[in-house]
Design a protein that fits this description.
The protein is mainly alpha-helical. The chain is 60% helix and 8% strand. The chain is elongated, with a radius of gyration of 51 Å. The termini are far apart.
């Protein structure tokens, strides 16, 4: 059976269905020829499975391929197969098609293709020495080389730079067609011989040959032509984008799955060309255009470069191309653009050019570290504008020669400035942290620049007082909420927050105790905002003050019930407010001789309070009390009655003139047992202000110990209820000494707390940690050093004997 198999030849007859015809082709195999690339058996014998496999012609372009076996003993020689079949019937025809632009014929028919493929197949499967796989592989390459060398390269070289791209694209398109058909004709080589010998695939080999024979020779001219086209388009000329796109595709394709050719040959030169182009553009624009116009041109250029990449360049080029444009148009001339006189960043801020500022922020935000100089200019501009407000306050003080803690013009100007730039930060700069920091630094510098006697902490607290007390700023609830929020934002820039807290607490106590607060809800709203800004400890005393008043209302009702139940007649309507000493600001207790009616009321409440509480001591603060005095004037044709709203001290003084028409300063002082300072303020409010219920002799606006005072029978007023204000005995703004004492305790507490945790620490490190922990004020490092010395004297700390400048904690 084996001998018979060896002596017999196998052949195949294939029928290809196409165009309604049946075509018969003979495919021969040499006697005893095994398939050297399909794993034929030893000695050229193939397996029975392999012998029975029907032969298929791949990529024939027809459907329904099938093959049967028949006998054929023909062996094809190399010259016969190449010179008589493959070259004249396939390669020459293909080259003729390419040279004549196909001349109406676009491809080989199925019959032509199958015939050439079969010839190649038979020449590759014949047994040695008639297996011509190696020779066919070489001739495949030589055919392409010859065509590229003799036809394609001369054709491209003959074109000048205006047409070289068109010719290159045309020849590359033809080459791809040639490469495709050559691969089809010699496909059996690609499947077996190439893999077995580890050779380049036919298609890759064809691309490589085009690169080495054609592209490497003309690439400099091609790249120059491409760059010229791109520059022409940048100058608004119309170019053939599809042709450029086809050239870029060629560079990508001949890189064979890599962008090495595109990157090394084209992209690098493109970036260099772009650098030169936009460097020249930047110089020209800087000379002729303002900063806003320059930025508009830059934005347009960047958008055009993005579109250029999208239209015909490789996507990988976008980032580096835009980076080059940004560097040449923005980064290099950035400082000059931002500081350009009349149109730079500060000029845009001064003229409120919001759109131009947004564009500037967008563009410089694309440049690494491009926003840093812009943020610096914004900071300087805000600070200068704020210092203008400070200078205006200084000028007002110098003109009037009078300083006051009430300066709503200054505070409103700061609020408007802050509102303006807060909005700018959000809308134009997108809330960028760099600009937020710049704005904060600018306002910290402005807000803490004190002018005159009163600091910004005084002015802010006084403006809050104007809003929150009755008779102050006329605002709706929404406006109050908005203004309080803005004030707290300004408060956040203060370095002396503890001073603000002390002043605010004093003013709050006066509003609450004198019933001058416009709304408890507003008071709680402000305290809540401060609590959010600085923590619960910062507002604990303020909240305690409000709670005292709430609790005091219940206590007053209980006392009134006690009076009713005990049928106790006080002769006067009395209401006592009991305050917790730790919450309220400390006030000087004024000892004054009360009229018998008032003294009896005081004693009744004191006895009641002792009975209802334990371990508590009352201290009467008459300077904080108030009273309603009913005055009846009987002189003249008719009787006139008024209700005077006065302090307890004023009421006591007025009561003296029920029994005395005229009294000297000394007599009043003896009767009231008051010191000169207190008495002068009482009498000044009753005789020198708008409502003169007493007549002073001699007339003047100051009180002297030699003056005398009389009941003013001629007093008249269109109002029945009259408020007679009195100058406070406590200065709400004179809290520096008390705040300084509190700061001393805070610094020492921070030092002890840090040293207790660290046990041993160097001087500079200790000072730095103390400064970082104290958020309500910023002490001078020299002050911290003095407190360290004080703690060493009191043996909380000691100096390390072995290390200079190091402290140790003493337990």
């Amino acid at each position: 059976r084996r001998a018979r198999s060896t002596a017999r030849c196998r052949s195949a007859k294939a029928w290809v269905e196409g165009r309604g015809a049946r075509i018969s082709l003979s495919l021969s195999r040499p006697v005893g020829g095994g398939d050297p690339w399909r794993g034929g058996g030893a000695g050229g014998h193939s397996s029975s499975r392999h012998q029975r496999r029907p032969l298929r012609s791949p990529d024939s372009g027809a459907k329904g391929h099938r093959a049967t076996m028949s006998n054929n003993t023909t062996t094809i020689s190399l010259d016969e197969g190449w010179e008589n079949e493959i070259k004249p019937k396939a390669i020459d025809v293909l080259e003729d098609m390419l040279n004549n632009d196909f001349n109406g014929k676009k491809k080989f028919s199925n019959e032509e293709y199958i015939h050439t493929y079969t010839t190649c197949y038979n020449m590759c499967v014949q047994r040695a020495p008639y297996n011509y796989s190696e020779q066919l592989y070489k001739r495949h390459g030589e055919t392409i080389e010859n065509y590229l060398t003799n036809t394609v390269l001369p054709a491209i070289n003959s074109k000048n730079n205006d047409f070289i791209l068109t010719e290159l694209v045309h020849r590359w398109g033809n080459h791809k067609i040639m490469n495709m058909w050559m691969r089809k004709f010699f496909m059996y080589l690609d499947r077996y011989y190439v893999n077995h010998e580890n050779l380049p695939a036919l298609e890759d080999s064809g691309v490589t040959k085009f690169k080495t024979i054609v592209y490497d020779v003309v690439k400099e001219r091609v790249v120059d032509a491409l760059l010229q086209e791109i520059d022409r388009e940048r100058e608004n000329a119309v170019i053939d984008r599809q042709r450029v796109r086809d050239c870029i595709s060629l560079l990508e394709d001949i890189g064979m799955a890599t962008l090495d050719v595109y990157t090394n040959d084209f992209e690098e030169q493109l970036l260099e060309s772009t650098t030169r182009y936009y460097r020249n553009k930047a110089a020209a624009w800087l000379e002729s255009e303002s900063t806003p116009s320059y930025l508009i041109s830059t934005e347009q250029a960047l958008e055009e470069e993005k579109n250029r990449v999208d239209q015909y360049l490789n996507k990988s080029t976008k980032e580096c191309l835009l980076r080059v444009v940004e560097t040449e148009l923005l980064k290099t001339p950035g400082q000059q653009l931002l500081e350009k006189e009349g149109s730079g960043c500060r000029a845009l801020l001064a003229n409120n050019r919001l759109d131009d500022l947004s564009r500037m922020f967008r563009l410089f935000g694309q440049v690494p570290d491009g926003l840093d100089p812009m943020a610096g200019l914004v900071r300087q501009h805000i600070e200068d504008e704020g210092m203008g407000i400070v200078s205006a306050r200084k000028a007002r003080i110098e003109e009037s020669e009078r300083d006051s803690a009430q300066d709503p013009i200054f505070v409103k100007a700061l609020l408007n400035l802050h509102i303006k730039y807060t909005q700018l930060m959000q809308e134009q700069f997108g809330g960028h942290s760099l600009f937020q920091k710049a704005m904060k630094e600018a306002f910290v510098s402005v807000v803490n620049r004190d002018v005159g006697k009163y600091k910004t902490a005084d002015l802010l607290s006084s403006y809050c007082d104007r809003i929150l007390k009755t008779g102050g700023e006329k605002m709706s609830d929404e406006m109050v909420e908005e203004n309080l929020s803005k004030l707290v934002q300004l408060f956040g820039y203060l370095t002396e927050k503890d001073l603000f807290a002390e002043i605010y607490r004093n003013q709050l106590s006066k509003r609450l105790l004198h019933q001058r607060s416009a709304s408890d809800d507003w008071e709680r709203t402000m305290i809540t905002k401060l609590k959010i800004a600085c923590g619960a400890q910062f507002t604990s005393k303020m909240e305690g003050m409000l709670n005292d008043l709430n609790i005091g209302g219940d206590a007053s009702e209980a006392f009134a019930a006690h009076l009713r139940e005990g049928q106790i007649d006080t002769a006067l309507d009395i209401s006592v407010q009991v305050l917790t000493t730790g919450y309220w600001p400390s006030h000087t207790a004024v000892d004054i001789a009360l009229p018998p009616e008032m003294a009896r009321c005081v004693n009744i409440f004191a006895e009641y309070y002792v009975e209802t509480t334990s371990h508590r001591r009352l201290q009467w603060m008459h300077a904080l009390g108030n009273a309603t005095v009913k005055a009846t004037y009987t002189g003249g044709s008719r009787t006139k009655s008024y209700d005077f709203e006065v302090t307890t001290l004023q009421a006591v003084a007025i009561k003296l003139f029920n029994t005395n028409d005229t009294m000297s300063f000394g007599e009043i002082k003896e009767a009231l047992n008051a010191d000169d300072v207190v008495l002068k303020r009482i009498l000044h409010s009753l005789s020198c202000t708008k409502h003169k219920v007493l007549r002073k002799t001699p007339k003047s606006n100051s009180i002297k110990p030699t003056d005398s005072f009389a009941y003013n029978a001629a007093f008249t007023s269109p109002k029945k209820r009259i408020t007679i204000p009195m100058a406070s005995l406590e200065d709400s703004h004179n809290q520096a000494k008390r705040v300084e004492e509190d700061r001393t305790f805070a610094i020492e507490a921070a030092i002890v707390r840090i040293m207790k945790a660290r046990k041993s620490l160097a001087h500079q490190a200790l000072v730095a940690e103390v400064l970082s922990q104290l958020v309500l004020f910023r002490p001078n490092p020299r002050t911290v050093k003095r407190r360290i010395e004080a703690l060493i004297e009191r043996e909380y700390l000691e100096r390390d004997p072995d290390q200079s400048g190091v402290y140790r904690y003493l337990a």
